[in-house]
């Protein structure tokens, strides 16, 4: 059995990406937002997710894309066959195509296997896609977001393990786009899945830090307030038609006779994420700076609360798997109240359903567990269940949408 023929839209996209990498016309996965001129050397135009406001168009050069794909193959031990299950309109999906082009150039046969664009991700459908790609012994690399991994694990726990078993046969599984709950990561690794956690964004040509360690040529530092900044050959040229935004986000350290430090003349991208560097330089991402909830004058990091909830919720709720999102909603007493919305729907649930509050006993158990680990202010004051969390882009939970759903529910 051999990998299936590529769907026609993906085959056309692959041809266009190859041409763009060789100096041809730039590829844009979505209709252009404006007719602004592209920076010289632009090969791909991708949109940001718009999680901090209006989406912007990011110009990625062929050099940046090649540097990212080459460094990824080096980190993974060499090129292999890539499986595309992410939208080919966002940077993560487009980078799978870029890597497959370079893998094909390196002699990998049938270097890309892809689902039909727009096809809903299901564990059984994923197994059907992956099994032929694994049949001939070529190393297979997959790229997923945590929501997809959550569905595969939930299906396996419910008795349908084909998808997770196929995933465990992959050489590597890149996992990015959002934070991965520790229990989900542990469950996947216990099943034999070789997960590599990635961190990056459109402005860095996708993932550029793998398992906390930068790819070759990439630099990481923490600016004031522990905001993560990134440098290296994978950085974008900038935002299309927005010189002010480019100047604010991409900055070059001064250089000169009296400025000869290690970063002098280095161009950096300032992210919106908070981070910490371990003694060995390993990066831990703590969440977005603008996600912090101020409740009763205390700063609460949603990502930290979500990490604890992912551990305690299955036991507290009797659910096989739970995917939490923590937000702040206006509160007359606390300024903002910490509220958790938890997806406990069946594997592959396509859309969020109505919110339903957990009972008082479950809420008390959840609050006690979080307070014990993180302190009382971090304990959610309310916990709601739903079938699925709204998403903004591949794998990114739409926190503003979650908060809006809570406000609407509580206003009834």
What is the element layout, followed by pairings?
Blueprint: H1 8-21, E1 27-28, E2 42-47, E3 57-61, H2 62-75, E4 81-84, H3 91-105, E5 112-114, H4 123-134, E6 140-144, H5 146-157, H6 162-168, E7 172-175, H7 182-190, E8 195-201, E9 206-210, E10 213-214, E11 219-223, E12 227-231, E13 238-239, H8 243-249, E14 250-252, E15 267-277, E16 283-288, E17 293-295, E18 298-300, H9 302-317, E19 323-331, E20 335-343, E21 356-357, H10 360-374, E22 382-386, H11 399-410
Parallel strand pairs: 1-2, 4-5, 4-6, 6-7, 7-8, 20-22
Antiparallel strand pairs: 2-3, 3-13, 8-9, 9-10, 11-12, 12-15, 14-15, 15-16, 17-18, 19-20, 21-22
Helix pairs in contact: 2-3, 4-6, 9-10
User: Radius of gyration, Cα only, in angstroms?
Assistant: 22 Å
Mean pLDDT: 90
N-to-C span: 56 Å
Give the strand content: 25-35%
Basic shape: globular
Remind me, CATH topology of the largest domain? Rossmann fold
Write out the strand line-up for the largest beta sheet, numbering strands in chain order.
Answer: 5-4-6-7-8-9-10
Largest sheet: 7 strands, mixed
Class of secondary structure makeup: alpha/beta
Beta strand count: 22
Number of structural units classed as domains:
2
Q: What is the top-level CATH class of the largest domain?
A: Alpha Beta
CATH architecture of the largest domain: 3-Layer(aba) Sandwich
Spell out the CATH superfamily of the largest domain: ANL, N-terminal domain
As a percent range, the share of helical residues equals: 25-40%
Task: Give me the number of helical elements.
Answer: 11
């Amino acid at each position: 059995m051999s990998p299936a023929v590529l769907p026609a839209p993906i085959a056309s996209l692959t041809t266009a990406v190859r041409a763009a990498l060789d100096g041809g016309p730039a590829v844009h996965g979505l209709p252009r937002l404006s007719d602004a001129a592209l920076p010289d050397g632009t090969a791909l135009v991708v949109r940001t997710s718009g999680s901090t406001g209006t989406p912007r168009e990011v110009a990625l050069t062929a050099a940046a894309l090649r540097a990212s794909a080459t460094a990824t193959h080096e980190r993974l031990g060499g090129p292999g066959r890539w499986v595309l299950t992410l939208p080919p309109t966002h940077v993560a999906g487009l980078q799978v195509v870029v890597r497959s082009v370079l893998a094909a150039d390196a002699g990998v046969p049938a270097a890309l296997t892809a689902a039909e664009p727009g096809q809903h991700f299901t564990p059984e459908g994923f197994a059907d896609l992956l099994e032929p790609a694994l049949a001939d012994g070529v190393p297979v690399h997959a790229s997923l977001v945590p929501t997809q991994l959550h569905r595969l694990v939930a299906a396996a726990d419910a008795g349908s393990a084909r998808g997770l078993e196929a995933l465990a046969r992959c050489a590597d599984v890149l996992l990015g786009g959002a934070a991965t709950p520790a229990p989900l990561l542990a469950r996947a690794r216990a099943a034999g899945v070789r997960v590599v956690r990635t961190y990056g964004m459109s402005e860095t040509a996708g993932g550029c830090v793998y398992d906390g360690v930068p790819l070759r040529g990439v630099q990481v530092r923490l600016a004031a307030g522990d905001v993560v900044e990134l440098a290296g050959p994978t950085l974008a040229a900038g935002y299309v038609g927005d010189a002010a935004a480019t100047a604010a986000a991409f900055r070059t350290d001064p250089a000169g006779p009296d400025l000869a430090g290690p970063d002098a003349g280095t161009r950096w991208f300032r992210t919106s994420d908070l981070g910490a560097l371990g003694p060995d330089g390993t990066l831990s991402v703590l969440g977005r700076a603008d996600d912090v909830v101020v409740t009763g004058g205390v700063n609460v990091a949603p990502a930290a609360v979500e990490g604890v909830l992912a551990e305690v919720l299955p036991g507290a709720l009797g659910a096989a798997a739970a995917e939490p999102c923590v937000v702040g909603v206006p509160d007359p007493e606390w300024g903002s109240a910490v509220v958790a919305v938890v997806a406990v729907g069946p594997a592959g649930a396509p859309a969020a359903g109505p919110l339903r509050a957990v009972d008082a006993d479950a809420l008390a158990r959840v609050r006690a567990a979080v307070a014990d680990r993180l302190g009382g202010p971090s304990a959610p004051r309310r916990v709601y269940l739903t079938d699925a969390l709204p998403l903004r882009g591949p794998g990114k939970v739409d926190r503003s949408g979650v908060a809006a759903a809570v406000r609407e529910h509580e206003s009834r």
